[in-house]
Amino acid sequence: MTTPLLSLMGISKIFHVGDREVRAVEDVSFDVMEGECLAIVGESGSGKSTIANMTLGIYPPTTGTMTYRGEVLPARRLAEHRRAIQLVQQNPLSSLNPKRSIGASLRLPLDVHDIGEKSRRWDRTGELLEEVGLPAEFRSRAPAALSGGQRQRVAIARALACQSDLVVLDEPTSALDVLVQARILKLLAELKQKRKLTYLFITHDLAVVRNIADRVAVFEKGRMVELDTVEAIFTRPEHPYTRGLIGAVPVITREEQELKDSLTKEPS
């Protein structure tokens, strides 16, 4: 049996706000297999970003176990874990240091993790930019000089710099317009294939992941209410909450409209 790249077993997260307990995530279990894109979908407050933050080690689960390649992930992540699991944030401007050039931001993870020969690291930053569709001369520019889509490409390149296995994509296209969204999703799909990457794709919008995800986990109020393939989620959703999310997905073809109508029709 193939060992999952990432496995969550009975994960819960409780935050204490004053004298109140807030259960952000409750008893969640799922596997992420190597080479797949698992999308975590839900509205604000569903727990999806909490899952992302626990995966990254920003804070530990209250209960449950997380494993990576079959080994338990410690609450305090080792350098090898920080290198292997990388993040692409929602807002590409805030994720890049405005006082650093693009090249300096890309070189930083190479220096921190001692990747490659020091004499080649500056050249490597140019190669990373070209890999995400940007010219190498962008290394000398400041983040503010780039468009939103270009900055997000830089953020993706920075994640690639660490030669990571798992990339957590936290709403990576929600701050972009529709055309730029499509281009970034196309780039992510190409990189996944080329580098054999694994994605944990966090989003509130099912439409965004329909052409990139292999499976979808639907979250509502901290609980995972459904987990299935993209095809099954879009054509045979079982949970009422999932059916509601499907009803909000933009329609392209007549067949999709008929399916949407059948899923959102009020019972007689």
UniProtKB/TrEMBL annotation:
Q: Where are the transmembrane segments?
A: none
Pfam families of this UniProt entry? ABC_tran, oligo_HPY
Q: Name one GO molecular function term.
A: ATP binding
ABC transporter domain residues are: 6-246
The UniProt entry lists the main location of this chain as membrane
**Family from the record:** Belongs to the ABC transporter superfamily.
InterPro entries per record: AAA+_ATPase (IPR003593), ABC_transp_ATP-bind (IPR050319), ABC_transporter-like_ATP-bd (IPR003439), ABC_transporter-like_CS (IPR017871), Oligopep_ABC_C (IPR013563), P-loop_NTPase (IPR027417)
Q: Which UniProt keywords apply?
A: ATP-binding, Nucleotide-binding, Transport
Judging by the UniProt lineage, the source's domain of life is Bacteria
Q: Per UniProt, what is the membrane topology?
A: Peripheral membrane protein
Name assigned to this protein = ATP-binding cassette domain-containing protein
